[in-house]
Structure formats: structure tokens, C-alpha cells
Amino acid sequence: MSAAFVIGGSGGLGSAICRALAAEWDHVVVGYRNGQDAAKETAAAIDGGVAMRCDVTDADSVSSSIADAAARFGGIGTVIFAGGVAIGQPFVSRIDEASWREVIETELIGFTRVVAAALPVFRRQQGGNFVSVVSVANYSYPPGDSLSSVPKAGIEALGRAIAKEEGRYGIRANMVAPGIIDAGLGAAFLQTLYSPEIWEAQKQRIALRRFGSGDEIAEAVSFLASDRALYITGQTLIVDGGFSL
């Protein structure tokens, strides 16, 4: 295969996704906004890895990085959108407009910029796919998760639109909705948010009675990005251990 481009590849979950993709793709672009050192470390640890700045709040940064990667590697087979904002868990009544604007601008509008830059590449090469990391909160809502779930609901809707409209060009779009995972922002929440007793109670809500790992989410992303999922598009794969049942 050609190159995989991971938006948000410098984060805890993003780096797990990069490692999983490296087993199947010739090149993996570890896209980062601010985490240059982490991105370079991840890129150096995998075969065919390269770190590349891709600031989803800047349309020029997104378009230039996508174009550079396509030119450098002769195409891009998949774009993974795993970027996001480091947010807390406030209730809706405590969220101000600035917080809404930040998360929607970075995640939802950021994804539209990625789509605008990648679609012409995919059309030229007559194929390609998007895999977006969204949230299980849009299927089983835990209080305090609206800042995360609202923009990701928009990302899901756009993913389905891409699948329906661009399928004629061999372009697919799918989503992975993680449950509670011990990676990235989820790992930070497990350490700093709520008491161990509350987290243990949450664990008992999960059919498998444990939280997920970054590697488990990464495997789902890798599957949807691969040729093994050639006839899957417009779908959200919920990877939550049974949290949403």
C-alpha cells in the first residue's frame, strides 16, 4: 500500500494508530499540530514513519501537508482523523461560547479542511478512504461529555455524506467510536477526573468489565483503513467493550 496520513498522530491514541498502520502501509505520516517531539519519536519508532506538521485550525497548513505527502509518496491511501482538543467534562450549563467555538473549530471545521484537501487526491488516484475517531457518547451518553460528543456527531454526519456522494469514485469513509480507553485524554481522565470508586462503577457498566486500550482502538481503525474493509463505508464501528449495550 501507499501512505497513511494520521491527523493527531502525536497523541497517545494517535501514536497507537500509527503503530498499527505501520504493519500494513509502506509509509505512515505522523501529523501533529503542537507535539513535534512526540510526533518525531513515534515516526522514528516505526518503519516508513515521517513526522509532518498539520495544523487543522489552518486551512493552508492542512492543504500543504496533504499535498506534500501525496507528492512525496506517490499518493495517500487513507487519512485518519484522530485530532482533538484537550477538554474537561463540564455539564452543558457550564460551557461558555468560547469553549464551544474552540472544539467545533478544531474538530468539526478542522475535519472539513482535511476533507477538502484530501478529496481531490483521492479522486485523482481513483480511491482512498477516511477513518475518523469519534465518540461512543453519541450512542450512550455519559453526563459531562457534550464538548466531545457534539462536534464528533457532526464528523459522523459528514463521514456518511462523503460515503454516499464519493463512493462512485472509489472513496470510502468510516468512523470508530471508542468507549472509555486508557490512552490519550482518556488516560488523563482516569488519573485526574473523579474518584477510583466512580471509575470502578463505570467499569461495571461495561460488558467486558474493563476499559479499552489504545491498541484495541487502533486495530479497529487499521481494519477500516485497509482493503479488508473494501465493501464497508458510511459506518460507525463502536469499540467500547459493551459500554453502550
UniProtKB/TrEMBL annotation:
InterPro entries xrefs: NAD(P)-bd_dom_sf, SDR_fam
Species in which this protein is naturally found: Sphingomonas chungangi
Pfam family, one: adh_short_C2
Protein name, entry field: SDR family oxidoreductase
GO molecular function annotation: oxidoreductase activity
Top-rank taxon, per record: Bacteria
Lineage: Bacteria, Pseudomonadati, Pseudomonadota, Alphaproteobacteria, Sphingomonadales
Keyword annotations of the record: Oxidoreductase
Record-stated family: Belongs to the short-chain dehydrogenases/reductases (SDR) family.
